[in-house]
């Protein structure tokens, strides 16, 4: 009712009201259960064996040439809101964790792995961070779109599990919501650590506190894809085995699911 009234006043009031209502409800346990149910509705859980069996078939899902335009339509609205000063927990999780911990951020050479059409580079600029930003993605269609949208940055077609960059090439590597789509996520983590000199961020990482990895099939952008929700302890052990220690984290969202706490987190690791 309140939202309908606000809509009569204009879209910005409506958006603000939605955020306020969401914030007010966010500690209510019934609302949390409702959100968890709604969130997991988009996933079909499969076994590790099934995930391994379908991984070859689904490993190229994100390369579908129709995805960049579809994603850009969504992202464009988010970028406009962000430019206009609206907070965004997902974007803020990344910029906050970096500005809080890396004083030399502006002089960092950054690589984003799984960069899609490169929009996180714009988030940095909106926040006044002017590091040297480079990105890669295994989808030629996404890289074509990144080159068109942000021609002054370097964008490469690269597979996260077999990067062609030299060891220690970038002060900061951002694995941008990418390892969760890769069955061999251990290889993707190892590659991110290898090409980083000092810091690695695992942005938008879905984790359970006490179970996992759980494998899912998900429909997004009209294609079927694999998504993995990790066991946080296993993930941090894997990072440690590549010389990465978690020094800070931001929670983008969290709720309870079957006696487990589930969160989407952005981790900042330092390389030893
Ligand atoms: C959810 S989007 C992330 C976009 C952006 N980095 C962000 O954090 O908002 C995941 C991206 O990972 C890319 N990706 C998936 N598997 C990959 C792989 N094996 N190597 C490189 N990129 C991959 C997809 O093409 C897609 O652009």
Report on this model:
This protein is an alpha/beta fold and about 270 residues long. It folds into 2 domains: about 1-40, no CATH class; about 45-270, Vaccinia Virus protein VP39 (Rossmann fold), CATH 3.40.50. The protein contains 10 helices and 10 strands. The protein has helices at about 1-10, 10-25, 30-40, 50-60, 65-85, 90-100, 120-125, 140-150, 185-195, 230-240, and strands at about 45, 110-115, 130-135, 155, 170-175, 195-210, 215-220, 225-230, 245-255, 260-270. Strands 1, 2, 3, 4, 5, 6, 7, 8, 9 and 10 form a 10-stranded mixed sheet that branches. Helix 5 runs parallel beside helix 7. The longest helix has 17 residues, at about 65-85. It is globular, with a radius of gyration of 19 Å. Residues about 1-10 have low confidence and may be disordered. The structure holds S-adenosylmethionine.
Q: What is the distance, rounded to the nearest whole angstrom, between the alpha carbons of the first and last residues?
A: 54 Å
CATH architecture of the largest domain: 3-Layer(aba) Sandwich
Radius of gyration: 19 Å
CATH class of the largest domain: Alpha Beta
The overall average pLDDT, rounded, is: 92
Coarse shape:
globular
The helix-strand sequence is: HHHEHHHEHEHEEHEEEHEE
The number of helical elements comes to 10
Task: Estimate nothing, just give the exact number of structural domains.
Answer: 2
Q: Care to count the β-strands?
A: 10
What is the CATH homology-level superfamily of the largest domain? Vaccinia Virus protein VP39
- Give helix % range: 40-55%
Main β-sheet, in a few words? 10 strands, mixed
Spans with pLDDT under 50 lasting ≥5 residues? 1-11
Q: What percent of residues are in strands? A: 25-35%
Could you say which structural class the secondary elements and strand pairing correspond to? Answer: alpha/beta
CATH topology of the largest domain, which one?
Answer: Rossmann fold
Present as ligands are: S-adenosylmethionine
């Amino acid at each position: 009712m309140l939202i309908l009234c606000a809509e009569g006043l204009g879209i910005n009031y409506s958006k603000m009201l939605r955020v306020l209502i969401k914030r007010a409800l966010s500690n209510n346990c019934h609302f949390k259960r409702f959100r968890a149910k709604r969130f997991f509705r988009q996933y079909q859980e499969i076994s590790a064996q099934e995930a391994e069996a379908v991984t070859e078939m689904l490993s190229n899902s994100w390369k579908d040439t129709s995805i960049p335009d579809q994603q850009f339509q969504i992202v464009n609205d988010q970028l406009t809101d962000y430019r206009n000063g609206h907070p965004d927990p997902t974007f803020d999780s990344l910029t906050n964790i970096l500005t809080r911990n890396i004083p030399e951020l502006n002089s960092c050479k950054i690589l984003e792995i799984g960069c899609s059409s490169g929009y996180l580079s714009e988030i940095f600029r909106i926040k006044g961070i002017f590091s040297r930003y480079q990105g890669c993605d295994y989808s030629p269609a996404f890289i074509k779109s990144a080159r068109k949208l942000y021609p002054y940055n370097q964008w490469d077609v690269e597979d996260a599990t077999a990067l062609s960059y030299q060891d220690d090439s970038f002060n900061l590597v951002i694995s941008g919501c990418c390892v969760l789509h890769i069955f061999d996520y251990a290889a993707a983590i190892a590659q991110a650590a290898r090409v980083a000199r000092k810091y690695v961020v695992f942005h938008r990482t879905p984790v359970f506190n006490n179970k996992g990895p759980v494998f899912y099939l998900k429909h997004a952008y009209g294609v079927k894809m694999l998504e993995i929700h990790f066991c946080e302890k296993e993930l941090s052990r894997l990072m440690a085995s590549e010389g990465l220690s978690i020094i800070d984290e931001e929670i983008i969202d969290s709720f309870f699911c079957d006696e487990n706490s589930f969160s989407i987190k952005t981790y900042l690791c330092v390389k030893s």
